[in-house]
Please model this.
Amino acid sequence: MIRHGQASFGQGRYDRLSETGSAQAEILGDYFRDSGMKFHFACSGEMSRQKETGRIALSRMDSGATDLELSIVSAFNEYDADEVIRRQMNQMVAEDPRMAEDFTKFFTDNHSFQRVLSRALWGWVSGALDTTGMESWEEFKNRVWSGICRIREEYRGGKTVVVFTSGGAITVATGLALGLPDNATVNLIFQIANASVTVFRYDRDRFTLSSFNETAHLHMRADPRLVTHR
Model:
């Protein structure tokens, strides 16, 4: 499972790769090519940033290594972070007036961003948020798991599948593989870097984590600007 390259955070349209995000996707594809990687199935969610990352990465691989078209699987869409935050904004400020300043610096200050999102996510995960008319945490987890189960059923026997998705979906998959409680699972979301690689192994009975949040392909370019988290 691959997290998409850096999106256009703080811009008018978030759901597209930044210049750095496109470069990250190219480096990822080069890494797949140089390591001789071959995929039996490649898919992404419906978000533009997910699809762009997948198409760029696959295009960098040798033509003989993969001729796959990128399939779209909605189970791997990201959760609606805007809605999770928006519904709790007033309550968060009422409970802690200092949060008002964090909201004004949400797009420019990493600490403010993490405080707002952490608190909003916990309200969503804990069930404190009224999710009428939106996807609940349990529904999100079940959706991601349904996509994983489809892959486990359709691509067995040593098949290699790549999923271009987002941090939330990778977090859910990791938590399920490790049997983590929700409060531990959700904290992982802040660790997952753009264009990172998380590997799972599976068969009919098992779904296990092999490696988490690999970014060596980015670090090897010796440019710290290529390792991003938002």
User: Anything to note?
Assistant: The chain has two domains: 2-77+158-226, 81-126. Residues 81-126 form one domain. The radius of gyration is 18 Å. Residues 57 and 76 are 18 Å apart (CA to CA).
